[in-house]
Amino acid sequence: MKEIDRREFMKAMAIGGAVLGLGGIVFHEPMEAMASGKYDIGQCKSVRVRCISELGWYDSKKLIGQMKAAGGPKTNQWVIPWDPNNAAGSCSLIDIETLDGRHHKFLLDTGWNRDYMDECFKREGIDRMLKTGEIEFLFISHEHLDHFWGLETVLKYNPEIKIIIPSTFYPEGMHFLRGAEFITPSARNRIPHRGKLVQLKPGTINKLYNGCAGVVFDLPIVIRVRGEQSLYFNVKDKGIVCVTGCCHQGILTFADFAQQKLAGGDKMYGVYGGLHIAPFGPIKPERAHLITGMAKYNFQKVACNHCTGLAAVKKMIELGYPVVKGSGRYTSVSKLYVGAGDEVLFG
Ligand SMILES: [Fe+2]
Ligand SMILES: [Fe+2]
User: Fold this and answer.
1) Spacing, Cα 335 to ligand 1 middle (Å)
2) Which residue range is the domain that position 93 belongs to?
3) Alpha carbon of 346 to ligand 1 centroid (Å)
4) Rounded CA separation 146/72 (Å)
5) How many CA atoms lie within 13 A of 51 on its CB side?
6) 142 CA distance to ligand 2 centroid (A)?
7) Which secondary-structure segment (H or E) carries 335?
8) Separation of 7 CA from ligand 2 center, angstroms?
9) 305 C-alpha vs ligand 1 centroid, how far in Å?
10) Are 200 and 221 in contact (CB under 8 A)?
11) Which end of the chain has fewer surrounding CB within 10 Å, N or C?
């Protein structure tokens, strides 16, 4: 085969692969409500969350400066010249034990910096679990750089892993899944996703296992992202656990949804993840109600990290909330919350 022909052939193969990938997109079948109007997602025995990394980036000032210089919070994240050396990322391993004693593991988000995430994956054994298929799928909360742009590192170990995304993804995010490189923001995924791609539609309740469901909240989010999907677990004899990436929908909206729509929602048990209350330092006055408003749920375990912000965690401790402490290891800067390499058990 002549060189030019071979190149054309390879290109056609690549396109064929992408088309195949596209053909694998399915919408998850949402649940139907019971006569009471509530949804019964079943129950699980426990859920254990291991924080692989919760640090989104190293230097907030630098990150905000780059965003402002590029046009501010409405600017598309895919056209901002981010400093790749400022990137870290948010990623957690979820291990749910169903009532029959079986364990199922899946990954919540991919982090951002590919090399950094690779280090984290090796440290926590995620690389091996991806290779063996022990991690059953990847659940991407939203398109934000610090949750999604580390995708290549996941696909490097398992390009066929099932991925669950909100149906609100922008075209850039869809391209990224198929393999794409965006030069300006230093975002790269050279490994096309070859597995099943499942989209969840906003507002629907999507049972993933007995006692575990995903819900998409449709809303515009800074740097032109739309929609975030979060997780609910119904732990037998304990109550509902809310697990989130950034919680851009707000913790009150997130927890209220469980109270109003889920069977068992009258008993809230815990929360894990980023709550986007004080992501860049001090608590802004307009966000303070998110902290005080959490009191009504009477959570038994509050395991907030990432964009919750240290100031917000300190305020929760001051208010007497049962904040789960961590070890302050690796890139996590405080022992006051669950950080990299720490885990929390709800059950
Ligand atoms: Fe985040
Ligand atoms: Fe976010």
Assistant:
1) 19
2) 3-332+339-346
3) 22
4) 18
5) 33
6) 7
7) none
8) 39
9) 10
10) no
11) N
> Could you tell me the two tokens for 331?
């890139």
What tokens were used for 208?
A: 């993933």
Residue 17's nearest CA partner among 153, 131, 160, 163 is 160
Residue 327, both tokens: 């070890």
CATH number at residue 211: 3.60.15.10
Instruction: Fill in the DSSP letter of residue 283.
Output: P
Q: For residue 214, how far is its CA from the centre of ligand 1 (angstroms)?
A: 18
Rounded (5°) CA angle 168-44-158: 50
Distance (Å) from CA 274 to ligand 2 centroid:
8
Q: How confident is the model at residue 13 (pLDDT cuts 50, 70, 90)?
A: very low
What are the two backbone dihedrals, phi and then psi, of residue 173, each rounded to the nearest 5 degrees?
Answer: -65, -40
Q: Which residues contact 261 (CB under 8 A, 6 or more apart)?
A: 37, 38, 39, 205
Residue written as token pair 């391209």: 175
Give the number of whichever ligand sits closest to the CA of residue 228: 2
Q: Say which ligand is closest to the CA of 249.
A: 2
- For ligand 1, the distance from its centroid to the CA atom of residue 58, given in whole angstroms, is 13
Amino acid identity of residue 184, one-letter, is T
Rounded to two decimals, the pTM is 0.93
Q: What is the pLDDT of residues 201-254, one digit of tens each?
A: 999 999 999 999 999 999 999 999 999 999 999 999 999 999 999 999 999 999
**What is the number of structural domains in the chain?**
1
Q: At what angle do helices 3-23 and 171-178 cross, to 10 degrees?
A: 120
